[in-house]
């Protein structure tokens, strides 16, 4: 007797993001103000008790007055929302699409990949092709990375990776779906996102490739054989052949003296400026609309840079100091130039379409990276895809002649690429020149560097320090900020709310009263190391608790945002709570931070600081190493990425010595690890 087929497991239920109780949020908000009130008193402002009493008064009035009305509105909005009150109504607009600043550095994230070992060993002595400034191994690695990315995408679609029978699978599948076949569209005052194509059109089966600022659509899937069938992805060898064919076309165009309309640089401009220029272009010629639509619908982008950017370290003739040398002997300047290649530099800033959520970048030396527009999904998502793409080195067996043969039954008659031409006039040419000048100013002012700290990592923090690694790193940054500035600042840490349906992020306010007390104990002479360690424990316990609250939908910043946005000033509604200068100052994130992953396959990561006198810091905490990507502005006298890096190292070593000095003095109570 044949057993009946087993029923497919049902996807787990993902709960809705809750609307936290109003009083809970208000009490947590008051607690978050305590370190700022203490700072104000320390610097001659209102006394701590007077300041706290005033805010308690405003909070109590808010709770029984307009706050109750706003909470009721938010609960009603949640009931009417298909997924959750935040993502369906507010988040993407307020956090991203309403921002008018250029995406370059300010909003887009960037990743620098580890090098592929194959190019260094497989073609010793073989001459590169040097067509249009590209190289053989540049194209090969680009084809391999594209194919691996598409393999990840297809395995997700077939549920061979992260099936939707798990909460993680549901989250990754939903999040990665927003990476592909989509782009941001500039609009006056508030941008929009394109709608992914519903069918496997040629555009939807192509990637956008940019070289020498020209745009091409390159199909990487065969057309589906039936309306219900899935398109078949091409082999790495076939993708490589298409890239080479495209490169030869660019070589021919260069030989004829043609120059591209650098539309990419326009996408890196102020959003209202880009919206105006795009409208002008779309009205100028029909081909511009066709090209833009193809770029929006493309799976993802690939930027083939035709030059390798390098940084000459200061005093290059002198030996590099120890902190400027990578533990494998790689100079700091090489690491940073790789990071800047992914971020954007003066040689490649026009060879990008900044509106795409994922752009792979490969330069002639085979250095690779990625960058992306932030609004559709958070940076952790493309980093997961990127890790899959680079975990395996290029496999030569995938580039043999037989791999160039088309499989039976597919339609192989489509051209290997299509030019996405842009028609411009004198006005647009001037706009491109002006946009490039503004973009150059942005990248030249970006003080962006990576720090590889390899004295210890998460293993030591957990086993010897007995601390949560993330909370520990956050305390490092608090100490480093205070040492370099002599004051405290509101600090943002990203916490994922991935356990909820359509969950994105919540803010963790790292600057707490306990964190402040610990930092002050470290810089105050005469405080015993035992007292310092106990203060560190309290600070980490508090941070760990706040992390759990944020991850489980009980944070405060998204809730306060929702309440504030439901206020109706036109109807005479107001709230002293929201008009308080401290309310605004408590969310001035001059220290904006985010942990990503262990980062085994990344040399560095980055995102721009939110404030001109602040830092944007992304970190990768691995068992034996912590990598920090730090961005600030050269033009600001209060910041220096190089100085901050040195103080981070100093703080990490101080904290290690603090733990070791009294390691055997008394048993330490366990602190929950995240």
Question: What would a concise description of this structure say?
Answer:
With 674 residues, this protein is an alpha+beta fold. Helix content is 43%, strand content 12%.
Structure commentary:
The active site is at residue 374. This is Choline/carnitine acyltransferase domain-containing protein. Pfam families: Carn_acyltransf. Residues 17-648 form the Choline/carnitine acyltransferase domain. Belongs to the carnitine/choline acetyltransferase family. The chain is an alpha+beta fold and 674 residues long. Helices cover 43% and strands 12% of the residues. Helix 17 (513-523) runs antiparallel to helix 18. Residues 123-127, 313-329 and 668-674 have low confidence and may be disordered.
How are the SSEs placed, and which strands pair?
Blueprint: H1 22-42, H2 48-64, H3 66-80, H4 91-97, E1 109-113, H5 118-122, H6 136-157, H7 167-176, E2 184-185, E3 192-193, E4 206-211, E5 214-219, H8 236-255, H9 263-267, H10 271-284, H11 286-297, E6 301-304, H12 332-343, E7 359-362, E8 368-372, H13 380-390, E9 418-419, H14 426-445, E10 446-453, H15 458-463, H16 469-485, E11 491-496, E12 505-509, H17 513-523, H18 529-551, H19 557-565, H20 576-579, H21 581-585, E13 591-595, E14 602-606, E15 615-622, E16 625-633, H22 641-661
Parallel strand pairs: 4-6, 6-7, 11-13, 13-15
Antiparallel strand pairs: 1-8, 1-14, 2-3, 4-5, 5-9, 7-8, 10-16, 11-12, 15-16
């Amino acid at each position: 007797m044949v057993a009946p087929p087993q029923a497919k497991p049902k996807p787990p239920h993902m709960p809705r993001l809750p609307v936290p109780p109003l009083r809970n949020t208000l009490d947590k908000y008051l607690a978050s103000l305590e370190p700022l009130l203490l700072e104000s008193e320390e610097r001659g402002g209102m006394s701590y008790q007077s300041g706290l009493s005033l805010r308690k008064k405003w909070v109590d009035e808010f709770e029984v007055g307009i706050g109750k009305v706003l909470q009721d509105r938010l609960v009603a909005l949640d009931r009417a929302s298909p997924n959750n009150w935040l993502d369906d109504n507010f988040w993407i607009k307020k956090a991203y699409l309403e921002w008018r600043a250029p995406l370059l550095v300010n909003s887009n994230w960037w990743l620098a990949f580890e090098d592929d070992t194959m190019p260094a060993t497989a073609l010793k002595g073989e001459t590169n092709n040097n067509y249009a400034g590209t190289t053989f191994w540049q194209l090969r690695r680009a084809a391999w990375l594209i194919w691996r990315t598409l393999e990840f995408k297809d395995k997700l679609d077939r549920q061979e990776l992260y099936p939707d029978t798990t909460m993680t699978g549901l989250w990754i599948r939903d999040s990665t779906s927003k990476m592909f076949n989509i782009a941001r569209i500039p609009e006056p005052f508030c941008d929009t996102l394109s709608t992914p194509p519903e069918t496997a059109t040629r555009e939807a089966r192509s990637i956008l490739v940019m070289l020498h600022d020209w745009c091409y659509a390159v199909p990487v899937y065969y057309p589906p054989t039936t309306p219900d069938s899935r398109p078949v992805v091409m082999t790495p060898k076939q993708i490589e052949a298409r890239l080479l064919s495209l490169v030869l076309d660019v070589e021919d165009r260069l030989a004829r003296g043609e120059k591209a309309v650098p539309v990419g640089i326009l996408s890196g401009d102020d959003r209202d400026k880009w919206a105006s220029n795009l409208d002008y272009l779309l009205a100028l010629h029909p081909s511009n609309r066709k090209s833009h639509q193809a770029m929006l619908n493309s799976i993802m982008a690939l930027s083939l840079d035709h030059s390798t950017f390098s940084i000459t370290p200061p005093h290059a003739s002198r030996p590099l100091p120890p902190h400027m040398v990578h533990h494998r002997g790689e100079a700091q300047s090489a690491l940073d130039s790789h990071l800047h290649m992914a971020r954007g530099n003066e040689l490649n800033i026009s060879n990008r379409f900044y509106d795409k959520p994922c752009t792979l970048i490969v330069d002639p030396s085979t250095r690779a990276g990625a960058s992306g527009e932030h609004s559709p999904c958070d940076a952790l998502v493309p980093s997961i895809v990127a890790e899959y793409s680079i975990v395996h080195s290029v496999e030569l067996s995938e580039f043999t002649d037989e791999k160039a043969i088309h499989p039976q039954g597919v339609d192989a008659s489509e051209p290997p690429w299509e030019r996405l031409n842009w028609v411009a006039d004198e006005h647009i040419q001037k706009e491109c020149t002006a946009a490039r000048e503004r973009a150059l100013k942005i990248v030249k002012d970006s003080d962006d560097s990576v720090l590889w700290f390899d004295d210890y990592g998460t293993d030591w923090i957990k086993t010897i320090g007995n601390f949560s690694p993330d909370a520990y790193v956050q305390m490092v940054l608090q100490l480093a900020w205070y040492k370099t500035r002599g004051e405290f600042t509101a600090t943002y840490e990203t916490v994922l709310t991935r356990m909820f349906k359509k969950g994105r992020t919540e803010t963790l306010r790292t600057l707490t009263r306990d964190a402040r007390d610990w930092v002050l104990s470290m810089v105050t002479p005469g405080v015993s190391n035992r007292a310092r360690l106990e203060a560190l424990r309290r600070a980490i316990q508090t941070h760990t608790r706040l992390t759990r609250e944020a991850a489980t939908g009980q944070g405060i910043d998204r809730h306060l945002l929702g309440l504030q946005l439901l206020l109706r000033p036109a109807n005479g509604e107001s709230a002293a709570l929201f008009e308080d200068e401290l309310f605004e100052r408590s969310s001035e994130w001059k220290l904006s931070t985010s942990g990503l992953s262990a980062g085994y396959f990344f040399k560095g990561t980055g995102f721009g600081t939110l404030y001109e006198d602040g830092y944007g810091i992304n970190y990768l905490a691995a068992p034996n190493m912590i990598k920090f990507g730090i961005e600030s502005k050269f033009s600001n006298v209060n910041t220096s990425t190089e100085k901050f890096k040195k103080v981070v190292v100093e703080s990490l070593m101080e904290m290690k010595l603090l733990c070791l000095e009294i390691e055997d003095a008394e048993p330490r109570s366990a602190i929950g690890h995240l």
